[in-house]
Amino acid sequence: MIAGLVQILFFQGLGELASKFLLPSLPGPVIGLMLLLGWLLIGRRPVNAALALVADSFARYLGVLFVPAAVGVVLFLPQLRTHAVALACALVASVILTIGCSALVLKVMTRDDGDE
Questions:
Q1: Tell me: the pLDDT tens digits for 28-70?
Q2: Would you kindly state where each structural domain of the chain is located, as residue ranges?
Q3: Do residues 52 and 5 make contact, with C-beta atoms less than 8 angstroms apart?
Q4: In whole angstroms, how far apart are CA 104 and each of 34, 46, 108, 112?
Q5: 59-86 burial by CB neighbour count: b if 16+ within 10 A, else e?
């Protein structure tokens, strides 16, 4: 388990360094996750048991990470009520844009070029 945790923290550290010096607009953990994913894809080998154990443990308790967000929503409830119409419009627009972009990506990815 320690070896898997070290691997995850190593890539998060690399992501933090990349965020600090190369891509300050992206969070370090996101860059680290992309680096870990790239490493796993380039390696073309099965994920080792230690990394899989840590990932499964994190996934089991993923719901706990939503507690701070829920507390934040309750904390800012008066401001959310004040701007409810703007928030609803932004949510609806983002859902529509997401569905449209997903449809375009699917169309491009499944395009048949006729090279058969």
A1: 999 999 999 888 888 777 778 888 888 888 888 888 878 888 8
A2: 1-60, 66-116
A3: no
A4: 24, 33, 6, 14
A5: eeeeeeeeeeeeeeeeeeeeeeeeeeee
